Amino acid sequence: MKIKILSILFVVISCVSLFVIPVSASGSVELPIDVNERYTDISYIDETNVYGEVVTEEEQQELQTNKNVYIVILSVLLVISIVILVVTVKRAKDDKLLPSEEVSGNRD
Fold first, then answer.
1. What is the pTM of this model?
2. What sign for the dihedral angle of Cα 95, 96, 100, 103?
3. Of 34, 36, 54, nearest to 44 (Cα)?
4. What is the CA radius of gyration of the chain?
5. Phi-psi region of 40 (alpha: psi -120 to 50; beta: other; left: phi over 0)
6. What is the DSSP letter of 50?
7. Which residue from 56, 39, 38, 58 is spatially nearest to 47, judged by alpha carbons?
8. pLDDT per 10-residue tile (average), the chain, 108 residues
9. Three-state secondary structure of the chain
């Protein structure tokens, strides 16, 4: 009973902290934004990646190679998992999944 009360107390405290802290912090913050001023320079977008980093051709080639390696590794792991699934289903179908139960069942 004490564990249930303690867990409920922790849940209530976490829920209160989720709602109280953002509400109290949001009241005092103002961001002045001028709609006519351009805050970002987008003239160099063609030379950068999503994060704004300048990317050279060598880095781009390395990223593509890493991407291909990851795809191959994940494909091999997928095939292995499918093979394990098929073997397990076949053993379960033939009732050979747990041979230790058959041995202990024959002794009784």
1. 0.42
2. positive
3. 54
4. 30
5. beta
6. T
7. 56
8. 82 75 59 71 64 78 93 96 93 75 52
9. CHHHHHHHHHHHHHHHHHHHHHHHHHCCCCCCCCCCCCCCCCCCHHHECCCCCECCHHHHHHHHHHHHHHHHHHHHHHHHHHHHHHHHHHHHHCCCCCHHHHHHHHHC
